User: What shape does this take?
Amino acid sequence: MKIEFRGDQPVVDAALIAPLMDLDVIGFQVLMQSGCIRTGVERGTGADAGKLRLTFQSPDWRVRLTCSGDGTVLTTTRLRLARDGAHAALAE
Assistant: This one.
């Protein structure tokens, strides 16, 4: 999987992230537009310089993609967020 860039901003196809959050593309887009899915971008420093972490978080899931500088996804981590405080991490 590879992330594209427009300038220095990552552009992620909803079809890549939606299944990781147990959603279809339309459901993912609706939740993104309503603000129920938050996103974050962190650029690596020190030993992680040149890497990028993209995070998508809904009430049920947190998905993090760690990418190389060219957008190649190095790791994908899924964390199911339980409302009772318990979490289950799934690395792929």
Remarks:
- The first helix runs from residue 14 to 17.
- The helical segments are 14-17, 25-34.
